């Protein structure tokens, strides 16, 4: 116990840092923080001004001239007109000006805004530091006022053992040896622990690797089989399509796809009918393209029933003349597509949003099932017969 | 004994005055330095913008109440020269600041010693 008294020193915190001094220090830091805050506010004002100016400068060239009130002297304004709205005389700083366009000016202002932002950031960092300092001073002041004492004790293991040697070898030899032994054991234990942990990690890693490999394999297998099924479906669909193309009148295919999904027997107004005919004529020129694309494009699964449906329709109306309006009307009314709607409902639509609208049949084939799927449910819920798919093109017109 | 103390006190006073003066100088130096630093920043900004300008851009310099048209190259050279000048000035200010601070520290030490001597003398006198 005596030794401890020699080793340690006890100082009350208030003697090291008097409470008043700590208070004063914290007050000073607070004052500095206040100053910095003011500066920050000013900078933020600058930033706001700058962004406003950027907006204004960007807006000015929108018109050839602006009617404004021109300041004249300190208190007077008179109406004037701002012309040359794309020419700015920009102050670069230090008395240097430059003639600039709107765009260049905006660039300069944006660079300036970046500078301001960096200044704001640095100021914020400084303020954070100051706040930490202030809180430290505050706690110190508080602790000093509370009468906290600081106990300082030099940590010197070797010194103590040396001293032990000096004082009495016999007395301290056994605990010392124990200590040494303990240290060695500690080391060994630590080493063993580290090794076991490493082994564990290695095992985990191995397990994870094998797992992921298995997963990968399974996934690839699954996708492959899916693809194979898809291919078979597509082959079937393609066969159907080819039979369509063998049919001399390609217009029919186009026409049917363009027809709106309305329950049969519904009367059509003249407007839509003429539209159909227009569409038909318009797409007449695309046929050569279409026939090739028809076979070449990869068909999604849900496309298949649709293709069959078309075949059916076309064949059931072989004598129709698509160039006649009456023919068009007949077709509209006589196309039943119950099979289409049902089958489409069961299969999930693949929506390909990446395809842009080209006006050719290729684009529609991808979007078509989605539309018909969504609409067929609605039409079925309303009790009417499911009707034909509608192209996006058509829907927009409605 | 009394005269010694009085002399020491006078000495202390003059030294304290000197210290005050030094501190004022340092404050002034700081202010000038700040001004120059701001100017340096501004000029560097100008230089950056001038470098980014088109070759055939019109550049003006505000001299008093008039804008005087300047060559871009000329303006560039001028700004560069000014930056060099300000940097040199800042360096000079740094040197003087260092000098002043050294002086201030030595004066502070001297003042502290004098105060201690006076205190010890007074304590001795009280005992005697």
List the defining traits of the structure above.
heterodimer; A: 398 residues; mainly alpha; Helix Hairpins; two-stranded antiparallel sheet; 14 helices; 70% helix; flat; disordered N terminus; B: 128 residues; two-stranded antiparallel ribbon; 2 helices; rod-shaped; Prefoldin (chain A); nucleus (chain A); chromatin binding (chain A)
Explain what the structure shows.
Chain B: One of its GO terms (cellular component) is prefoldin complex. Chain B: Keywords: Chaperone, Coiled coil. The complex is a heterodimer of chains A (398) and B (128). Chain A has 398 residues and is mainly α. Chain A has a domain at 9-152: Helix Hairpins (Orthogonal Bundle). Chain A is built from 14 helices and six strands. Chain A has helices at residues 2-7, 13-16, 19-59, 102-146, 157-167, 169-246, 250-258, 270-284, 287-296, 303-316, 325-334, 338-346, 361-381, 392-397; strands at 8-12, 66-72, 76-82, 88-93, 96-100, 149-153. In chain A, strands 1-6 form a two-stranded antiparallel ribbon. In chain A, strand 2 (66-72) and strand 3 (76-82) form a beta hairpin. The longest helix of chain A has 78 residues, at 169-246. Chain A starts with a helix and ends with a helix. Chain B has helices at residues 2-52, 72-127; strands at 59-63, 66-70. Chain B has a two-stranded antiparallel sheet with strand order 1-2. Chain B is 84% helix and 8% strand. In chain B, strand 1 and strand 2 (66-70) form a beta hairpin. Chain B has a single domain (2-127), classed as Orthogonal Bundle (Helix Hairpins), CATH 1.10.287. Chain B is built from two helices and two strands; from the N terminus they run αββα. Chain B has 128 residues and is mainly alpha-helical. Classes of the chains: A mainly alpha (398), B mainly alpha (128). The A-B interface holds A 89, 92-100, 104, 107-108, 111-112, 115 and B 39, 42-43, 45-46, 48-50, 52-54, 57-63, 67, 75, 79, 82. Strand 5 (96-100) of chain A pairs antiparallel with strand 1 of chain B.
């Amino acid at each position: 116990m005596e030794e401890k008294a020699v080793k340690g020193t006890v100082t009350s915190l208030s003697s090291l840092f008097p409470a008043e001094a700590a208070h004063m220090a914290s007050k000073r830091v607070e004052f500095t923080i206040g100053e910095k805050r003011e500066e920050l506010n000013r900078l933020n004002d600058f930033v706001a001004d700058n962004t406003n100016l950027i907006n204004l400068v960007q807006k000015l060239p929108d018109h050839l001239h602006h009617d404004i009130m021109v300041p004249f002297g300190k208190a007077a304004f008179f109406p004037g007109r701002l012309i040359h709205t794309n020419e700015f005389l920009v102050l670069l700083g230090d008395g240097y000006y430059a003639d600039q366009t709107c765009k260049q000016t905006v660039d300069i202002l944006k660079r300036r805004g970046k500078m301001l932002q960096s200044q704001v950031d640095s100021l914020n960092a400084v303020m954070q530091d100051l706040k930490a300092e202030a809180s430290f001073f505050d706690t110190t002041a508080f602790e000093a006022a509370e009468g906290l004492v600081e106990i300082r004790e030099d940590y010197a293991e070797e010194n103590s053992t040396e001293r032990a040697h000096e004082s009495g070898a016999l007395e301290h030899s056994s605990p010392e040896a124990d200590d040494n032994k303990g240290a060695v054991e500690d080391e060994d234990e630590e080493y063993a622990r580290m090794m076991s942990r490493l082994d564990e990690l290695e095992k985990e890693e191995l397990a994870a690797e094998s797992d992921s490999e298995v997963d990968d394999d399974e996934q690839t297998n699954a996708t492959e089989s899916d693809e194979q099924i898809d291919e078979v479906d597509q082959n079937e669909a393609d066969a159907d399509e080819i039979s369509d193309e063998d049919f001399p009148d390609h217009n029919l295919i186009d026409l049917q796809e363009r027809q709106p999904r309305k329950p049969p027997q519904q009367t059509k107004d003249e407007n839509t009918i003429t539209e159909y005919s227009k569409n038909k004529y318009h797409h007449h020129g695309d046929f050569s393209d279409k026939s090739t694309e028809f076979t070449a494009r990869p068909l999604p699964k849900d496309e298949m029933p649709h293709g069959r449906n078309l075949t059916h329709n076309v064949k059931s109306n072989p004598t129709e003349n698509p160039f006649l309006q009456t023919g068009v009307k007949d077709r509209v009314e006589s196309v039943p597509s119950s099979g289409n709607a049902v089958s489409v409902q069961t299969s999930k639509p693949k929506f390909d949003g990446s395809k842009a609208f080209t006006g050719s049949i290729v684009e529609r084939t991808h979007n078509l099932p989605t539309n018909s799927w969504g609409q067929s449910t609605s039409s079925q819920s309303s009790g009417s017969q499911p009707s034909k798919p509608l192209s996006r093109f058509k829907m927009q017109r409605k | 004994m009394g005269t010694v103390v009085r002399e020491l006190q006078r000495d202390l006073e003059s030294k304290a005055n000197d210290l005050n003066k030094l501190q004022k100088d340092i404050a002034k130096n700081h202010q000038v330095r700040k001004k120059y630093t701001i100017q340096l920043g501004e000029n560097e900004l100008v230089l950056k913008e001038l470098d980014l300008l088109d070759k055939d851009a019109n550049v003006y310099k505000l001299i008093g109440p008039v804008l005087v048209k300047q060559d871009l190259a000329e303006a560039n050279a001028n700004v560069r020269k000014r930056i060099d000048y300000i940097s040199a000035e800042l360096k000079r200010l740094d040197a003087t600041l260092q000098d002043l601070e050294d002086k201030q520290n030595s004066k502070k030490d001297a003042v502290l010693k004098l105060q201690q001597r006076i205190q010890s003398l007074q304590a001795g006198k009280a005992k005697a």
